[in-house]
């Protein structure tokens, strides 16, 4: 009877460990795969939505480079890029373009969106667009260089997060999973050894 209670206690501890790890996002959504999309779809500037917008900037830059290579102006290239994008960035930029279509100045609306999003890479993208429109600088070369540097920065951020993951997993492992493992493996052996002595 005692080994059964220990096994149940170990399973409960293991469930609590998985739940704690999932709630602290250590497992990255493995326990709750729907947690991330729900956060992205919420209105407002949530953290998950901001990350999704940040992740889509290199794709926007590649589309801008393709549009300018095809001979489109900065604004037309931007419009085509927004039409090809999917996700939170596309939704936000489509709203901006609707306001521009209603008569709002293009640069003013884009500057307001960049300020509200707070994304540094998006601010650099809009600066490249404004510079190419005012000075006539090649949009293709500038956006390709910017896309390469943004991708490199994303890669560095991902590596940094991967390096910090073991430290974050240490607490649930030591205090939740390891005790459950010991309850399931060591304690039944000790009980049977004590009974035989």
Describe the structure in brief.
By secondary structure, the protein is an all-alpha fold. It contains eight helices and no strands.
What does this entry look like structurally?
There is one protein chain. By secondary structure, this protein is an all-alpha fold. The chain has one domain. The protein is 83% helix and 0% strand. The chain contains eight helices and no strands. The chain has helices at residues 2-23, 35-41, 47-69, 74-84, 88-101, 106-117, 120-135, 139-196. The longest helix has 58 residues, at 139-196. It is elongated, with a radius of gyration of 26 Å. Mean pLDDT is 77; it is low at 24-45.
Order of helix and strand elements from N to C terminus: HHHHHHHH
Helices, by number, come to 8
Assign an overall shape. Answer: elongated
Q: Estimate the strand proportion.
A: under 5%
Features:
elongated; 8 helices; 197 residues; 0% strand; mainly alpha
Q: How are the secondary structure elements laid out?
A:
Blueprint: H1 2-23, H2 35-41, H3 47-69, H4 74-84, H5 88-101, H6 106-117, H7 120-135, H8 139-196
Helix pairs in contact: 1-8, 2-3, 3-4, 3-8, 4-5, 5-6, 6-7, 7-8
């Amino acid at each position: 009877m005692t080994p059964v209670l220990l096994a149940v206690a170990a399973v409960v501890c293991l469930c609590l460990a998985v739940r704690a790890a999932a709630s602290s996002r250590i497992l990255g959504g493995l326990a709750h795969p729907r947690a991330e999309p729900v956060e992205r779809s919420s209105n407002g500037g949530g953290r998950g939505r901001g990350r999704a917008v940040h992740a889509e900037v290199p794709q926007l830059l590649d589309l801008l480079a393709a549009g300018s290579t095809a001979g489109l102006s900065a604004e037309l290239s931007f419009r085509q890029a927004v039409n090809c994008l999917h996700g939170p960035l596309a939704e936000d930029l489509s709203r901006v373009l609707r306001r521009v279509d209603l008569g709002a100045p293009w640069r003013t609306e884009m500057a307001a969106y960049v300020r509200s999003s707070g994304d540094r890479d998006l601010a650099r993208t809009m600066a490249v667009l404004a510079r190419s429109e005012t000075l006539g600088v090649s949009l293709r070369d500038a956006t390709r260089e910017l896309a390469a540097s943004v991708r490199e920065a994303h890669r560095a951020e991902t590596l940094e997060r991967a390096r910090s993951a073991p430290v974050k997993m240490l607490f649930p492992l030591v205090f939740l999973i390891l005790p459950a493992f010991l309850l399931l493996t060591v304690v039944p052996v000790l009980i049977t050894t004590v009974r035989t002595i």
